[in-house]
Amino acid sequence: MKLLKPKSQQLAQAEGNLQTLGLSVLSYRDYIVDELRLPFFLDTENKPINAVHRYLYEKAFYMGVYKSANTARTYAECIKAWFTYLNATGLVWEAVTVRQIVAYRNSMKSSSDVSKKTLSAATINLRINVIIDFYRYWWKELERTQGDTEAKRNYDKSRSRTVRFKVNTDRKGARALSLESCAAIYGRLKGAHKLIFLWCVCTGMRISSVLSVELSQFEALSGGSFLDVTVKGGRKQSVYIPRLIVEETFAYKQVERALAAKRGDGPEAKLFLNNRGESVSRECYYAAYKRACVVERIKSNPHQTRATFATHLESRLGSLKNTHNVDPLKIIQGLLGHASSETTQIYLENIKGRHIDVTSLIETYADVFRSG
Question: Are residues 364 and 235 in the same domain?
Fold first, then answer.
């Protein structure tokens, strides 16, 4: 079985690549939903596994679960791991039962993946959740289209045993980086990657949100101000962008981005471009980040910038707790895009208006990197 991940390229070029692979039965356009290029699976005869594709397509188009290519790839990787297990155990995916999915979970608890690293409970739970979701879709379709009673029984069992599928996990917060480590990583990164790191560590934004920012959005900013960005789940979140980031990004736009754009095939809407004039990908940024950490001998992953922003800003918010009658944790929750309650929204409104000191604290925190 193969997992193919369509890249951001011209449709004609993509169709040509498929023909080169002998996959003329596929239409590349069938794997695009609102500009989101969905991964797709091929069986041993190089034919697409349509059930998996229909599942991914439905999640993306009808249910609105996928708001980024990375989410779609994550789901696809989970399904690929499952099919790899099926091939190794001689099981046929169409005839799988709930009991066999539980056996798959147990096998992951006692073994490791192809990278020889022991799987974490979070990874196991993610894979199981995706597989259960896929089979619920599959069983429901069989029941609806064929009146399959066995599929209905499997569906009902999966609904009643949801909690029992999960592996217990010790929930640990992401480890914050010291300011010294941040400065070291920042000093090693180059070009757009350096600036992306600055955006992440000074705003608490997820990497996917930073990479989604468009040039036109940035050009509308002036000084330190709020920017509406897309966050996890497809929601819009108002994020404060410090003056330092605006200044550094403006300089990048005037020189490095302008030169990169000339190397590309056409105008790119995204703010951050690589040396070929294409939008910076998550994978490319991750690789650059890891290289910087290896050189500096720092054990870190890119997602820690959110914890770093939260931790260092929370320590600065302590002084406002009594004088302004605010809850620092709620403010951090709102700044990180975890706006799940009306109370959080109230605090966000306070940040924009009455409690100007909060944005001043963000400016002070960001200025730590001004000498970088």
Answer: yes
